[in-house]
């Protein structure tokens, strides 16, 4: 199996972690192991724990990182369960954690995984973890029209969400939607033709929204950030790469809340809420890919890296 995926913001992410040779690091979205390999190259007695819910990713990374022996540990799980994973290994605090969110090139380019809207025969799957029973086909064929519209608007920022949802419900009364081609045809029929000539593929936003809802990507991210920060050693860093504004907003807001948690009115002379800062935001503006990286890897265009550092005491 070839797990083709070019790691985004690779140097910037590795530099942000300030890797210590004897440190313990966690890759919460292991993918093909590109970032993990660069971390491992910089370790001496340290270890890397790689987590991914995709069995294909675990297999590919295991092959790529085999030369590092016991320093590299791969575990099939979701990063939201990172605490339980570390507890099971007898690990308390770690020196760095990083996430590369979104869909890998392998997942996008493997039609049978159902993430792509460019292959008409691709199934409506979109499961990050194929142990899950529910697929994107279940979403489009069972959700109420109002719920579908909400999903497309909230997670895809699709301005024609109501029209698309209505057409989906109408079509599935004749037969269930099963393929990407069927869904794309409905989306095209729902969006004015003059708007389809610009702004990218008309199905992009709908497919993004369904994927996010199916895999609960934003909910997992939102409730995991605080817990990951709590697992950092003093001076340890959490680095997160996002690929769209919804993810980036969550990371930005959670980092800011952990840096300045006090909600006391500004006129109070001292804090009375008792909330203490957990650290500082290293990146007040996100780190972006260079023009050279975007030329070499167009999928890096929307990437943003934000970094948080745990208090040193």
Notes on the structure:
42% of the residues lie in helices and 14% in strands. It has 313 residues and is of the alpha/beta class. The chain folds into 2 domains: 10-106 and 217-310, 3-Layer(aba) Sandwich (Rossmann fold); 108-215, DNA polymerase, domain 1 (Orthogonal Bundle). Strands 3-2-1-4-5-7-6 form a 7-stranded mixed β-sheet, sandwiched between helices. Helix 3 (55-64) links the parallel strand 2 and strand 3 (72-76). Helix 7 (145-156) crosses helix 8 (161-172), helix 8 packs across helix 9 and helix 12 (217-230) packs parallel to helix 13 (245-259). The radius of gyration is 21 Å and the shape is globular. The mean pLDDT is 94.
Name the overall outline: globular
Largest sheet: 7 strands, mixed
Average pLDDT value? 94
Strand order of the largest sheet: 3-2-1-4-5-7-6
In short:
The termini are far apart. Helices cover about 40% and strands about 15% of the residues.
Describe the secondary-structure layout.
Layout: H1 10-17, E1 24-27, H2 34-41, E2 47-52, H3 55-64, E3 72-76, H4 82-88, E4 94-100, H5 105-109, H6 136-142, H7 145-156, H8 161-172, H9 180-190, H10 193-196, H11 204-215, H12 217-230, E5 232-242, H13 245-259, E6 279-281, H14 291-296, E7 304-310
Parallel strand pairs: 1-2, 1-4, 2-3, 4-5
Antiparallel strand pairs: 5-7, 6-7
């Amino acid at each position: 199996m070839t797990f083709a995926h070019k790691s985004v913001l690779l140097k910037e992410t590795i530099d942000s972690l300030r890797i210590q040779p004897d440190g313990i690091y966690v890759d919460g979205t292991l993918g093909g192991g590109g970032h993990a390999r660069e971390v491992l190259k910089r370790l001496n007695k340290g270890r890397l724990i790689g987590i991914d819910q995709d069995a294909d990713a675990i297999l590919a990374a295991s092959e790529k990182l085999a030369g590092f022996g016991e320093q590299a540990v791969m575990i099939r799980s979701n990063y939201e369960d990172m605490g339980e994973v570390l507890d099971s290994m007898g690990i308390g605090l770690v020196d760095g954690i990083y996430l590369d969110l979104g869909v890998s090139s392998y997942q996008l380019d493997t039609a049978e995984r159902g993430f792509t809207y460019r292959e008409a025969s691709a199934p409506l799957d979109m499961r990050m973890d194929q142990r899950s029973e529910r697929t994107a086909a279940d979403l489009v064929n069972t959700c109420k029209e109002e719920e579908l519209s909400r999903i497309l608007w909230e997670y895809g920022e699709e301005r024609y969400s109501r029209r698309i949802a209505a057409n989906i419900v109408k079509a599935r009364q004749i037969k269930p939607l099963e393929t990407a081609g069927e869904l794309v045809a409905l989306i095209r029929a729902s969006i004015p033709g003059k708007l389809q000539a610009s702004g990218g593929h008309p199905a992009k936003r709908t497919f993004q929204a369904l994927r996010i809802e199916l895999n609960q990507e934003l909910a997992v991210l939102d409730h995991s950030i605080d817990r990951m920060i709590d697992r950092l050693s003093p001076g340890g860093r959490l680095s997160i790469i996002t690929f769209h504004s919804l993810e980036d907003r969550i990371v930005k807001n959670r980092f800011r809340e952990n840096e300045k948690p006090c909600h006391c009115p500004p006129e109070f002379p001292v804090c009375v809420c008792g909330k203490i800062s957990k650290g500082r935001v290293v990146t007040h503006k996100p780190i972006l890919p260079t023009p050279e990286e975007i030329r070499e890897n167009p999928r890096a265009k929307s990437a943003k890296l934000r970094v948080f550092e745990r208090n040193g005491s």
